[in-house]
C-alpha cells in the first residue's frame, strides 16, 4: 500500500491533477534518450496514468516513450487513450507492436483499438495474430459501433446445470485459460443457450455435492449484442446491475458486460450530451490540433450565423421604428437574451430527461403544461422587473409596458419551445442534444425581437 | 427468463419507455381501491421500475400505492427515487414503515433515504431501529454529503492473513449474516488495518491448505472515507476498478464501494454539470411542481438579466451613432451572438476537461494558446463571410469592414474568455460549471457590442 501512495504522489497531487514536475522529468529523459531513467519513471505506471501521460506528451514524444519503454510498455494504456491520440499512435506504431499489444488485452479493449482503423490497416494488424484471436476480434468488430457486442468481454466461464459445485470448482482450479477476474459463472445448455448465473459467493458458500442447477439464479437481464451501449447503461442504472450476460438473437451466451465497463459508457454518453448541447463535436480532446478544433467548431458557428442573420432580418423589418426611437435598439437584446436563457434551461432539462427516459409520451403532456406555467410565471416576474428598470432608465411608461408584454410572450414561447423542440426531434428519431439548441434560440430570438419591436411599432404608430 | 421478458413488456416498450397503458391501469386500480389488482400489477416489479412508477404517479397516488401494497412493497424502490419524490414520500409515510424499510436495505441505500431529512424526523425513524443499525447509520451520516463514506456499503467480509483458504471458505459457509453479494474479501490485521484483498475467483481456484496471505493482492487503491464522490468516480474510471475498499484516517477498513455504485455517481455528477451549465439547479426532476421549478429557474434568469442590462448599457453609449445608421442596430446582435456561441463552445470543453482532470496547470498554457489560435482562425473565416453578407445586404463596404474587424476581435476574446474564466474560477475553488456561463457571455456581449459600435463610431465620425 505504501507503494501505491508513493507512486500516486509522484504522478499526481492530492487533487488528482497530473504533476508538471513529473511530466517535465519524463520529457527531459526522453529528449536525453536516457532509457534507464524513462523506464524507472514510467515503467511501473498504472495504464490509466500512462495513458494520461501519453496524452500530455507531444506526438513525437509519444512514439519515443513507447519505443524506449520497449517490452516494459503496458499495452493496456492504449485502450485508455482519447480517440485522437489513439489514432495518431496506431498510425505510427509498427503493426507487430500493435498485434503484440492486442494479444495481451481483453477483447473489449482490443476492439476499442481496432474499431476506427481503416480496413487495410486493421487487416495488416489482425494478420499478425493467432487464428483464434483473429476470429474472435473480427466477430466482435461485426457488431455495430457503440453496441453491447463491442463493449462486452467474450471471456466468460460457463458450465452445464447438471454439474456439481465440486466439479465446477475443480474445473476452475484446473483450467489455465481463465479470465483475470470474474465474479460469476454462467449456466448454459449444450447449445450454449443461457439458463442462468451463479455468483461466486453463492458457489463458495454451497457444499461440494450440491448441483449447480439448484443454486442457479434465473432472474437475469440478458442484453442483446446489438443493443446500443446507451440502453445498456440505462439497464445497469435502473436495475443496479453489477454485470449482465450478452446474448445473440438465439439467446446464446456470447459475452459479459460488467459495471466497470458501464462507468466508462455513462461518462462517455453524458460527455457527448454536454458537448453536443454546446455545439461541440463529441470526440474532442485536450490534445487536438488547432486546425482540427477550428473545423469542429466551425460547422456549429455557421449554423448559428444563419440563425443570427434571420434574427437580424426580423430587426430590419422595424428599422423605421428604431430610427424613431433608439431606445428600442438598446433594450431589444434584453428580451431576446432572457428568452434564449429561459429556453435553454427548459431544453437542457428536457434533453437530459429524454436521455434517461424520465421524459416520454407517458408524461409529456404534464411536463409541457408545467413548462408553460413556469414560463408564464417567470415571464410575469421579469415583466414587472423590466418595466420598472425601463421606466427609471428612460422615463417612459409606454416603453415599460411594451417591454413587459414582450417579456411575457417570449418567456412563455421559450418554455414551450424548450420542451416541444426536444420532444419533437426525439419523435423524429433525431438526437435532441445536437439540434435542439439551434431551433430553440432561433425561436426565442425571432419571437423576442418580433414581439418587442412589433408591439412598439403598433403602439408608436 | 421468459418471465423477465414478459414483465418488461408489460411496463416498458422496446425503447425502454414507460408504457402509458401500464400507468393508467395502475392509476385505475388505485382509484378503484382494487388491492388485488394493484398487487398483481405492481407486486413483482423490480425496484427500479417501481421507483419510476412512483415518480410518474400523482403525490396522493404514491401514498395509496405504498399503503395498498402493504408488505408486498419493496422498500428498495425508495432508494431509487428522485430527491424530490423521495422527500415528499418520506414526509408522509409513518416512521415505522420507513424504519421497517431501512432494515431491509444496505447501508448506502438507507443513508440515501435519511440524509436530507430534518434532524428531528431522522431521529424519530432511527429510534425505531435496533441499536446496532442505529449506530451504523449514524456513523455513516457523519461523513460529509457526497463523500465516499456516504456511498460505501459497510457490509464487508474481512479475514486475518494467517487463515487458510479452507478456513475462510468454512467461515463463509457457516456465517448467516453475510452481504447478499460480494466478489472479494479483505485481509486485515487485528486492529482492522487494511492489508489487501482476495478476489473470490482467486480464492476458489486455490487449494484449501493455502494461506490467505499467499494469495493476497496488495495492489489496492484504498479510498479515504472523506473523499468526494467525484474523486472516487475518477479513480474508478482512471484505474478501471470494479471495487475499492474505503478506509478511515488510520487506514482501518470501514466499507467498500463497487462499480455499480459508481455508475450512479458518474451519472449524477455529469447530470449536475450539464444542468449547471444551463443555469438549472441540479436536483431537478420531471415531477417537480410549477412553483418549485419557477423558483429554481428564477435566480439564474435574474443574473442573466443583470448581464443583459449591462450589455444594453454598452449599446446606449452609442445611441447617437445608431441614430445615424440604423443598420448598426440590425447587425449588432450577430457579432454578440457569434461571440457568445464560440465562447460557450470553448467554455463547455474546458469545464468538462477540468472535471475529468484532462485540463490542469500541466497543460493550461498549451490549451490557452490553442483556443486563442482557434478563435483567431474562426474569427477570420466569419469575418470574411459577414463582410460579404453585409456588403450584399446593405451595399456598403465600410460596414462590411467594421463588422469583419469586430468579428475577429470578439471571437478571439470569446476563445480566451472561454478558457480563462473556467480555469480562473477553478483556481479560486469555485465550481466552473455553475458560474462560467455568466462571465463568458457577459464578456462576449459587452466586447461584441463595444467593438462593433465603437469601430462604427470611430469610422463614421
TrEMBL record, chains A, B:
Chief location category: membrane
SMART domains linked to this entry: CBS, MgtE_N
Recorded topology in the membrane: Multi-pass membrane protein
Location within or outside the cell: Cell membrane; Membrane
Recorded family membership: Belongs to the SLC41A transporter family.
Protein name as it appears in the record: Magnesium transporter MgtE
Membrane-crossing residue ranges in chain numbering: 298-318, 376-394, 400-425, 437-460
Highest taxon of the lineage: Bacteria
Any matching Pfam family: MgtE_N
Source organism of this protein record: Methyloligella solikamskensis
Summary of the function given for this chain in its UniProt record: Acts as a magnesium transporter.
Keywords, sorted A to Z: CBS domain, Cell membrane, Magnesium, Membrane, Metal-binding, Transmembrane, Transmembrane helix, Transport
CBS domain span: 215-272
Keyword Cytoplasm belongs to the record: no
